[in-house]
Design brief:
Length: 419
């Protein structure tokens, strides 16, 4: 009965316009809005500072024959992550499956795989941050379009779409609960300032209203199951933090955490905007909105990918190299130790601002490459079309060193270093 009520919720808020960099190309959030008062909901107490990595690709890659090693021995990557200081992992559940790419079924974000991964995380004593992604991404030889509305939802009114979103979020969390899985943090949507359930155009007010349905579902699940589940709003790029104001003015307030993607450098180009660092940003969000921040996605490159001048990865170009490749032979800037130091400093910065965590993106990635096969010839295990080149776009930022037999390197130990 509770779910059906959401199909009837009135649309109470006025439409605003604006946007963010990305395929959908919305503009910046409207700057003339006054500073809001802090949100009325009390800020939940969080004693834990969350430290972790995405793990969506790990078991998926293992099933195709790839291996994770530690000190030369094949190991369970979840065990390695736990033993090196992590207390949380990020998984993602999509409503719509990827189409088969190059004849390979891409299922790392589908129910059976996510449930298996969640149970493995729980067995290691790891909390789970779950991104629930109701929209889907399209890949072509020329690029990608993110956060598209599913075909079977295109004909729905906004109220019907909100009800469908509420039901999917609520039902997904209840199904996991019935399997003994209750995420510590739930994120509705992925980088929602880049678009959310859109059909070729971007409407900030509509996005805010729809997100409210999803966040309400998280609230209702947590209350009904008597569990603590924090809800997060995921924004790409700290300089676009104004979206928090924009969405709030359109009714999106019923969440706990402002989660940020942080990719500095020219490849993606994020910046801090008017904030000096994450300490300043975190304190400002607590004062302004009564919400803590976390960094949900970030990375630092650990290798140039070459050994004795020979590239050791797969055919797919890497999409992010940080620091920038000013000189690809400048190997001292791209080492596990540099990765470890940079991530530790970032985590300390977030923590100093009252933030609650840092989770790295893609740091479980491996090249699409089986041992004993010719360099660069992969299986097509990732979502990218053949025109991109078979493989991973992110293995250069991994915690497992593909130039050393996929052995765990000490970049991961920033989590042990953080007290």
């Amino acid at each position: 009965m509770k779910r059906l009520l959401y199909l009837l919720l009135p649309l109470l808020f006025v439409v605003a316009c604006g946007g963010e960099d990305g395929v959908v190309s919305p503009g910046d959030p409207t700057p003339e809005q006054p500073t809001p008062e802090p949100d009325p909901e009390p800020m939940p107490e969080v004693e834990t500072f969350y430290k972790g990595t995405t793990m969506s690709f790990a078991n998926y890659l293992i099933d195709f024959g790839l291996v994770y090693r530690e000190n030369g021995e094949v190991t369970n990557p979840y065990t390695s992550v736990k033993n090196h200081g992590a207390n949380i992992v990020r998984l993602q559940l999509d409503r719509q499956a990827f189409s088969e790419i190059n004849g390979v079924k891409i299922d790392w974000q589908q129910w059976d795989r996510v449930l298996e991964d969640a149970k493995m995380a729980k067995a290691e004593g790891l909390d789970i941050l779950l991104t629930l992604k109701p929209d889907y991404d399209k890949y072509s030889s020329t690029g990608a379009q993110h956060n598209n509305i599913p075909e079977d939802w295109k004909s729905l009114s906004e109220a019907e779409l909100g009800g469908g979103l509420y039901n999917w979020v609520y039902d997904s969390l209840m199904a996991l609960h019935n399997e003994g899985i209750d995420p510590a943090i739930v994120v509705v949507g992925n980088e929602v300032n880049l678009g959310f359930l859109h059909n070729g155009s971007y409407d900030e007010a509509r996005t805010a209203r729809l997100l409210s349905y999803g966040h309400s579902a998280v609230r209702d699940y947590a209350k009904e199951c008597d569990v603590k589940a924090l809800s997060a709003l995921h924004i790409a790029n700290p300089s676009k933090i104004g979206y928090v104001d924009t969405y709030r003015y359109n009714g999106c307030v019923n969440y706990d955490i402002i989660a940020l993607s942080w990719y500095p450098g020219t490849d993606i180009g994020h910046s801090m905007g008017s904030y000096r660092n994450f300490e300043a940003l975190g304190k400002a969000m607590i004062e302004k909105h009564g919400k803590r921040i976390m960094v949900l996605e970030t990375a630092h490159t650990f290798t140039t990918g070459t050994v004795d001048g020979t590239w050791m990865g797969d055919w797919c170009d890497n999409s992010y190299n940080y620091p920038d490749w000013n000189d690809a032979t400048n190997a001292q800037s791209y080492t596990p130790q540099k990765q470890r130091e940079w991530l530790l400093a970032l985590a300390k910065d977030v923590k100093a601002g009252g933030g609650i965590g840092l989770i790295t993106w893609g740091t479980e990635s491996l090249p699409d490459l089986l041992e004993g096969k010719a360099q660069g010839h992969g299986l097509g295990l990732y979502t990218y079309p053949a025109a991109w080149g078979y493989g991973s776009t992110w293995e250069n930022n991994s915690y497992w060193d593909f130039t050393d037999g996929n052995n765990l390197h000490d970049g991961i130990d920033w989590m042990q270093d953080l007290l």
